[in-house]
Sequence to fold (180 residues):
Amino acid sequence: MTRKSDSGRAARAKGERSLREACEQVVFASVRTARIEANEHGLSLPQAFLVRALARSGTVPITQLVKWSGNSRATVGGILDGLADAGVVRREHGIEDRRQVLVSLTPEGQALAARLEARNAERWAPLEDRMRNHDATRTAEVLEEIATELYGWKVDGAHQELSPLSRGLHGRAARPAALP
Fold:
């Protein structure tokens, strides 16, 4: 009886890559590119992630950003401090519950998010142009299946951004909440 690992080794010996290896390569390339793009805008990768998440969701409580990022409240607070100092985000207390802190993008933050999104779309356009519509749709479906299997949650159609911070700083696994 052939074990899965034996068949994987045989495929690699023939020069074929496993799905895991291909996905890892895409993740590493995406994170590296996202880090470069964030740096081009004077941001760290975690800051860019929060800016894009806020652009997609509007005003949200800090607790929701903590869930999405998989980081502690203190870490997210530190990231937001830098963004607030740069005039990118604003924090306000909730009207019904003054203990709740709500975060939103300022007009400058919205412009920054638009530039990040435009750069991201520019990066993906050549690949999307080369793929036929069916291939792109099926690839997206497969990637959603992988995300569901690995993270235990489904990516909805409106927000397909998986957290690049799905692990906390100390390597603890976090199951990010789905973006609204």
Residues 107-130 form the longest helix (24 residues).
